[in-house]
Design brief:
The structure is a homodimer of 251-residue chains.
Chain A lengths: L11 E15 L2 E8 L6 E2 L2 E5 L4 H13 L5 E8 L11 H6 L7 H5 L3 E8 L15 E6 L10 H15 L16 H12 L5 H10 L3 E7 L9 E5 L1 H10 L6
Parallel strand pairs in A: 1-6
Antiparallel strand pairs in A: 1-2, 1-4, 2-3, 2-7, 5-6, 8-9
Chain A binds a DNA duplex (30 and 30 nucleotides) through α6.
Chain lengths: 251, 251
DNA sequence: TGTACATTGCGTCATATTAACACATAGCAT
DNA sequence: ATGCTATGTGTTAATATGACGCAATGTACA
């Protein structure tokens, strides 16, 4: 959660942080990028502070970039969390010392923080998880197997997934999560994983193709068991257009 | 925008404010509660600060209560606005003097603020617009005739309406905006006003009744020109249930 | 080599939902 | 009485959805 090269707290917007729920899709699993601190092995969402001269959206992009190496990613603000006691008693003096925080900065870290939640959809294979502190671990974890998280990060994660599910009814998803070439069954698995329920193969094909955002390639997936499925790619222009105008119906 | 009985700035969460877009429905118009300061006649959304020991949701409820006298109202957080320069140069030293802000507090008011947007749906006839400062005006204004607003309040208002339109597809609306007894044409007008387009009378009736949240009363509207329309009320239990589970289709 | 099996691709059909419209009724105005 | 306007109810065609059937393709293995 904390980042190195920390500036003096005066350079940050006081009492404000950003937490990112970064989703990736791999091995038919929806995964979330989580961070384990070296201090006490507690897990958290990647997050950070907002510089005093930085837009909040820019700060979110910057956190995402520093953790995945990626830019130009689908990133959306979904909620702000501001219960008084959400970060009460989180940082002990011991932990702050561990992170190399000077004594005079302790008060700042122990003060009340409001956090803005962003969720991102990233191409799993292109992301390079990046630790920030020595001893820190950054890992992709199946969203079904997320361990206990610090603070209200579990609530933030749940809300992000809930938002993603709702927005699946309003926009197409996949361009950001899948490789350039993919099969319809893979896309279906993605939808099923996000929604948490199965969909009928044949109805899915009909519906997803009728949106008009897919280009059928003259190529089949190789090295697969059973019948080789056709490869598709997204028609970026039409995809963007539908993203902007919204879908008319949901799943 | 500012409130009297201001506490010392140290009692507030620094750099954080809340702005409320309060919608009401009257005379077939969707209206927004706006505030005109006595200082320079500029218009703004009702807003306020967050006490250091107050949840953000509680702060929003409190602003709503102080401006309308209402509690237990539909209130939803929809976005947080945090561009660096969003409140740059807003408060002149003159204006702060006008509002009775001591000199030593000036810096606080001129610092960067991030604001959390909430929108509310309230029963127009039950709300009692309440001024907070002498010289201040609080008025319901048709959302089509909103004057120029301070800061990024126009953007906040637009985003609130956009969110409301989207959420109309996910939940029923009306319980919070209409009187206890109402007619189907009135409810339709509400939907049309929010959506900004007309709907077919007969299709609307079929769809809205099929949701199962309406109770047809054995009573007709009186004192109307032309044929007297039937009165309806909401079935609160079923309404709440649908609010929680969501609608399956939209408009 | 050929048979079983899992998966994909394409199609069908009954039902539900939506959009567009016709017509009768109620109440006011003249 | 007659016209005007808005309400209440019904009809129909087009479209979308949900639940399947079945053939084709490629692997595994007897």
């Amino acid at each position: 959660m904390l980042k190195t090269h920390l500036k003096n707290s005066k350079e940050y917007q006081p009492g404000l942080s950003i937490d990112c729920v970064i989703f990736g899709f791999d091995d038919n699993q929806l995964k979330v990028l989580l961070i384990k601190t070296g201090y006490d092995d507690s897990w958290s969402l990647p997050g950070g502070f907002v510089s005093i001269d930085e837009d909040i959206d820019t700060a979110a992009v910057s956190i995402l970039q520093s953790r995945t190496g990626l830019t130009g990613i689908f990133l959306r603000q979904f909620a702000t969390f501001g219960k008084v006691k959400r970060n009460q008693d989180h940082f002990s003096s011991d932990s702050l010392a561990y992170f190399g925080i000077p004594l005079e900065e302790e008060k700042w870290y122990k003060s009340r923080f409001v956090t803005i939640g962003y969720y991102a959809l990233v191409n799993f294979s292109k992301a390079i998880p990046q630790a920030d502190n020595p001893g820190e671990m950054v890992e992709w974890i199946d969203h079904h197997e997320v361990p206990e998280l610090i603070l209200d990060h579990r609530e933030i994660l749940d809300k992000a997934l809930e938002t993603l599910r709702t927005e699946l009814n309003l926009m197409p998803v996949g361009y950001n999560l899948l490789p350039e070439k993919f099969t319809i069954p893979e896309l279906q698995k993605l939808y099923e994983t996000i929604l948490g329920r199965t969909l009928d193969r044949r109805n899915f094909l009909r519906k997803i193709t009728s949106i008009g955002i897919l280009t059928k390639l003259d190529e089949k997936k190789s090295n697969v068991a059973h019948k080789a499925p056709n490869l598709y790619s997204f028609d970026k222009d039409k995809y963007e257009e539908v993203l902007k105008n919204g879908l008319t119906q949901g799943w």
